[in-house]
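R.M. (postdoc): so does anyone remember the format we settled on? I'll just put the structure tokens first.
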């Protein structure tokens, strides 16, 4: 069932520090963790190959022991009837090399209030991997794309999620190398757009040791400490927040892998 449309420019009105103990939700921000300061809009400098531009994905989870992985569900929507070729960032698209992902927290500004913690915090030697598992052009409408992401560490070295803590998961990097405005082949880099971070599904193990069974997944919907919507080129219209059933995005993953 679809939720009401969210206004992408609705920013957090309460103090981040004051609300950090109570927030549970998803946060998206340009260039840095939300604790450093909110940057809800990013203008792409398409003509001179500006960027690359990083879109930081964070979560404020409930208390959860044994947490080792998270699936993220995002929607991109342009303010036009359809997606121009620049936004075809799927494997067969014009701009297939225009979107990448990283879990390297040390490459973005993180210090602030609250501090942006990392999924690997609290253990020794555990590494984190991140992957765009699907980029579904036209999923939900001709002017939209569904983006599915998985961030994981070894299930044998999980952490305990502390409620109210702001965790960095990963960041998406947008490259403009293929923009037609600078001589590339892909049109539409200057289009107004918005990205909404619909939901997260958290996976944990129910016990200690590498052979522990997985516990039931925990789903986190909607905004947390900051907005779960970020705009591109002033695309501060409405963001369609439509979290889907696990069965739906699971099938989409299988289709696009």
């Amino acid at each position: 069932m679809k939720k009401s449309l969210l206004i992408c420019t609705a920013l957090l009105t309460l103090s981040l520090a004051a609300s950090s103990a109570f927030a549970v939700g998803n946060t998206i921000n340009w260039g840095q963790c939300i604790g450093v300061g909110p940057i809800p809009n990013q203008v792409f400098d398409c003509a001179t190959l500006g960027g690359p531009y990083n879109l930081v994905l964070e979560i404020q989870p409930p208390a959860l022991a044994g947490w080792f992985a998270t699936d993220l569900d995002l929607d991109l929507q342009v303010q036009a009837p359809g997606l121009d070729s620049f936004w075809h960032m799927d494997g067969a698209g014009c701009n297939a090399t225009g979107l990448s992902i990283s879990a390297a927290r040390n490459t973005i500004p993180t210090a602030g209030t609250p501090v942006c913690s990392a999924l690997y915090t609290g253990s020794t030697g555990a590494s984190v991997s991140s992957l765009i598992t699907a980029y579904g052009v036209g999923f939900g409408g001709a002017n939209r794309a569904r983006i599915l992401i998985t961030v994981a560490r070894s299930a044998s070295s999980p952490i305990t999620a502390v409620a109210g803590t702001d965790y960095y998961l990963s960041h998406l990097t947008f490259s403009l190398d293929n923009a037609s405005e600078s001589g590339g082949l892909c049109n539409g880099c200057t289009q107004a757009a918005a990205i909404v971070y619909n939901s997260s599904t958290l996976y944990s193990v129910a016990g200690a040791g590498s052979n522990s069974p997985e516990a039931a997944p925990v789903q986190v919907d909607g905004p947390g400490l900051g907005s779960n919507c970020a705009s591109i080129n002033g695309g501060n219209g409405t963001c369609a927040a439509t979290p889907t059933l696990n069965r739906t995005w699971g099938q989409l993953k299988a289709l696009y892998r």
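R.M.: ...and that's the designed sequence above, right after the tokens. Also worth knowing: Residues 104 and 133 are 18 Å apart (CA to CA). Confidence is low (pLDDT under 50) at residues 1-21, 240-257.
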